[in-house]
Structure formats: C-alpha cells, structure tokens
Write a structure and sequence with these properties.
Length: 581
C-alpha cells in the first residue's frame, strides 16, 4: 500500500520506493479540487473497499487508473524528455467504493472538492481500506485545511479547447449525438476549461437568402446567410439550452464559422450580427471567432477583411493562432484592419513563438489585446510539452509561466481527436514524428460499456494548474514580494522552469499558507482598530466627529463608504485616521 501526490506516476513494481502509508494533508480553498493517489500492490486477485468517514464522504470521488502501453516513446529534443516507461496511467474510470482488483499494481485517484457551502476551516477524518482475501485492514489519516478564500466559479484563466465531435459521435453510436456530446462538454467545464466549438444544441440554424451579385458584368448567384435561433433540439429549446450551459459555467461563446475555408465576410455579415447580438443579450461577455489557424502570409488580407467586418458590425473578438510569423517583424496587415484597429483581438502564438516575440506581445497587451498561447507536438527544445509520456509537471506548470506574462488564457487543438483505439495505442504521428496522446484529453467510455466520457490524469493536472493560476493572482494582490519570490522558485520563463514535481507541490503549499497568514494578520489588524461610533450629540457636548478626506463633516452613518476618514474629539485634543474597508 502506498500514497502518491497528484504529479507522481507509478506503473511497475520496481518503481515503488519505500513509502510509508503516510497521512494525507490537503490545503485547498472553497470551490477548489485537490487530488491524491492510493496504490495497492497485490500478489493475487482480490477485492478492495474504501470507507471514508462521514464528514469526508460528501467531498470525494474515486477513480481507478487504467494503464496505457507505449509502443514508441514520443519524439524529444532539448531539455524536456519523455519518461521511459512501458505503461502510463492515464484514463480515470469512476468506480464505487468496492472494487475488484487484478493481480499486480492497482492505483486509485481521489478527487477532493471543497464547495462554497463548506462551513469549517478544517476537516479531520480517515480512509479505511479493507482488502479481501486475505482479510487486511488499513487506515489512512486525512486532514483537510480549508483556506479563507474562494476561487471564482468562472476561472480567471480563459481557455478554448477544441472538440472535433465526430469521433465522439462515431465511438458512441447509436447514442443521440446531441445527448452524448453534451456529456463531454459538461465534463470539460467541470475541469474549469471552456470548450470549442460552441455546443451543438445552442447553434442557430443557418438560413440562406438567395440574391444576385454582379461581378465583371456577369450575374453570379450568391447566398447571404442569416441566423435562426428559434430551434428545438433533442435536448430542448435552444434558448433553454443556453441557460443550461450558463449554469454549467460556460463563459465563452465561439462562432461556428471558420473563415479560413474561404468564407466571404459580406455573405455572413447578417449571420454574425444576429449571432453577436443574441449572445450579448444573454450575458456572455466573450464572443469569439476562431477564424484562422496557423495562417501563412497569403491569408493576411483575408484576415484583415474578416476582422474589419467583425469589428465594425459586431462585438465578436477575432482569435487567430500562429506557429510562425515568417519574418523578424510582424506583418503590418495584422496590426490594422483598415480602421486603425488591430486585425487580431486574441493572439494565439505557439509557446516558443511567444518566447521569441515577448516584447511584441507585451506591446499588444498594453494596447488592450490578449495573448492566449497554445502547445502541440514537439517543435522546440525548451518549452513544457503536452504529451502522454512526458512528466505531468509539464502540464501543470504552463499556467504558472503564463501568469508571469499576464497571459489570460490558453488554446489546445483537441480533446477528442481519436485516430485509432487510443485505449490500446496512443500513437499520434505528425510530420513523421511520434507524439503520444497529442490531441485528446478524454477516453471514450463505450470501450468499457459506458456512454460517457472518461477523463484523463492529464486533464486533472491541467485543472490543478488553472487553480494554481488563481492562487498566484490572489497572492500577487496581497503581497507582491512574496508572490515573486515563490513563483520564481518554479517558473521564470518558457525556457527556465522547474521540472521537479515535489518542488511544485511544496511551493503551492507555501503559497496557500502565505495567503492564509496574510489574511489572518489583516483580520487581527482590523480588530485592533477602534470602532467608529456615530452618536447624536448636542451642541458643545464632548464626543467624536468624523470628516472625509476633503475635510467635510459627516453626520449620517449611511454616508460612510469605503475610504480614508479622520476622527477627532470636540476639544481637538487628538486626531486619528481610520480606513473603512
């Protein structure tokens, strides 16, 4: 029996070090997940039962880890290397508390979730583990420290992770496509990641309006398109479905158009205007068009024209990915859509491209544009890699580095791109190079007779990195010196980051403890400040009076808001300054 933290991986008996059955000590905020692993090495088939004390039970979910065999290690170059193992734990299959075990290594992933309704600052309990046969009983003490902070329900770190959708529909036939894809979207949102593209059951219908356009004195029939939101899907009315996804914390809406396919802006203008107006009225602050993907310079005029129409007639932001600028200077066509505004609202460079053009992207951010980088494959020697057989810390550390550069989001090219049976073969070949696990973060449950998504360990670790981003944001707002000291123990740049998972876990704990200490000191400081009393006083009666920062006397308590105030007594013998929070 052994316990692992969330960034450790064990797949063979000789990898198990002398680990004691140590106590589990978790630090987490409200609305946060924290995970750990419990491993069992058994010499014969048996059954295990997990029993959590009642105070822990509402907050835990157990998964069994499945192992994926690696035929060929992923391509590597530079400092970052794939781990040399024959098998990697990755799919996480939800299980009940009583599970049959095969002979050998069995590992279980435990998610602990602290919701906003938790009313204690700590939980103390234990996990009882019963194994039979033989009749063996183990107990693992558990202590959960609840920090006095709440992470936002909608993450500060934006994301756009691509669903290809057709693999889900194919793997789960004959399940209704609208029903099964909804389950996958919900699961991604649970992990604090926003899906691309827009869910099937909130897409308006495209309606073509036939018209005649003149071109070189010839009449050429073209269609102009509009959007119809009066649609009923198998999951319900479109309008009701929008509210459903809002409740699931969908916060970004993406236009289901891909301009790079040769779309003409004037044909889709009416559609774009109606689409933008509808979702803006529904309260979505971010409406995005992922219009071009890794364009070449010959696309730049099209990008410029498309952006001009988006900006002039809609509230839609133009998002474009770049793996290369093909020049030492960024093409001017990308910096002006014809109206003086940049053609790009959200720049999505590959991690290495952001590294090489950091000054450029910093200048764009100062102009109000955003940067959401992406990663795919192995095309440089220094950035963290998002592949199945690379160390898990490389998934988690990306939001840390992103925060250093005021990066507000991330894009990933696939969460369901299954080219073959990925349960048996994770090989992805691009440009004659092997990239194991690239392009998917889910496994299809139909392999195990389940019509639902199976999350991966990589997805869980990325979720934890997004939560780390919130911690960095909170600490920076409270104590910049502590923030910069701690974050730079782990992340300094895309080519300078810590690859030791134990170090990241330790620093993350330090950050939580530092936040807790600062907030505790602030509360104590507030208690030490004398209360401000507002009593009606007769003229010439001794007492206190309060003035605002401009020296105006305040008589009514209701007039006092946040700010700095001065208090003195009638005899003017003393004066003190108070800060009302």
């Amino acid at each position: 029996m052994f316990v692992l933290h969330s960034l450790e991986r064990v797949s063979a008996e000789d990898e198990i070090t002398e680990k004691n059955l140590s106590a589990i000590d978790l630090y987490l905020a409200e609305n946060e997940y924290e995970s750990f692993q419990i491993g069992i090495l058994n010499k014969e088939e048996c059954e295990v039962e997990f029993i959590f004390t009642k105070n822990l039970t509402p907050y835990v979910k157990i998964y069994q880890e499945y192992f994926i065999s690696i035929k060929t290690p992923s391509y590597s170059c530079g400092r970052s290397k794939p781990e040399r193992k024959e098998k990697f734990p990755d799919p996480l299959v939800p299980v009940d508390n009583k599970i049959p075990l095969k002979k050998g290594i069995n590992i279980f992933w435990v998610d602990f979730y602290s919701d906003e309704n938790i009313s204690v600052d700590s939980l103390v309990g234990e996990i009882k583990i019963k194994i039979s046969p033989p009749q063996l009983n183990f107990e693992i003490p558990v202590k959960v420290h609840i920090l006095p902070i709440t992470l936002p329900k909608i993450p500060s770190f934006n994301s756009l992770f691509v669903f290809w959708l057709y693999p889900i529909i194919e793997k789960h036939q004959p399940v209704n496509p609208y029903l099964i894809t909804r389950l996958y979207y919900e699961e991604l949102l649970k992990h604090k990641i926003n899906p691309s593209a827009i869910p099937l059951d909130i897409r308006p219908k495209r309606k073509a309006l036939n018209t005649i356009m003149e071109n070189n004195q010839k009449q050429v029939p073209l269609d102009l398109y509009t959007a119809d939101f009066n649609v009923v899907y198998p999951t319900g009315r479109l309008e009701d479905n929008v509210e459903y996804y809002r409740a699931k914390k969908l916060n970004l809406i993406e236009v289901p158009l891909f301009a790079q396919q040769g779309l003409l802006a004037f044909q889709w203008l009416e559609y774009l205007k109606i689409f933008s107006s509808y979702f803006k009225e529904k309260g979505f602050s971010e409406i995005i068009d992922y219009s071009f993907d890794e364009p070449h310079p010959q696309h730049y005029d099209l990008i410029r024209e498309w952006a001009y129409h988006l900006h002039k007639f809609t509230a839609i932001k133009n998002l474009v990915t770049f793996n290369n600028f093909y020049s030492s200077n960024v093409d001017e066509r990308l910096l002006d859509d014809g109206s003086g505004r940049s053609a790009i609202d959200i720049w999505v460079p590959k991690l290495a491209l952001h590294y090489y053009f950091q000054n450029f992207f910093s200048e764009r951010q100062k102009k109000g544009e955003e940067v959401w980088p992406y990663q795919a494959g192995v095309t440089d020697s220094f950035t963290p890699k998002w592949l199945l057989d690379y160390p898990l810390i490389e998934w988690r550390i990306v939001p840390w580095i992103a925060f250093l550069f005021d990066i507000k989001g991330m894009v990933y090219w696939g969460v369901d791109k299954w080219e073959q049976d990925v349960w048996e073969d994770p090989t992805v070949i691009i440009d004659n190079k092997v990239y194991n696990g690239d392009g998917y973060l889910f496994y299809y449950g139909s392999k195990l007779g389940m019509d639902k998504p199976i999350p991966s360990i990589r997805l869980k670790v990325l979720r934890d990195g997004i939560e780390d981003y919130e911690y960095l944001k909170i600490l920076k707002s409270l104590d910049y010196l502590s923030y910069i000291t701690l974050v730079k123990k782990i992340a300094r740049n895309w080519d300078d980051w810590c690859n030791k998972s134990d170090s990241l876990i330790l620093v993350r704990k330090e950050i939580g403890e530092k936040i807790k200490t600062i907030l505790k000191e602030e509360r104590l400081s507030e208690k030490e400040e004398p209360d401000v009393h507002f009593n009606k006083k007769e003229k010439n009666e001794k007492g206190e009076k309060i003035f605002d920062i401009k020296g105006n006397r305040i008589f009514n308590k209701k007039m006092v808001k946040k700010g700095i105030y001065f208090i003195r007594n009638f005899s003017n013998s003393w004066l003190k300054v108070v800060k009302i929070m």
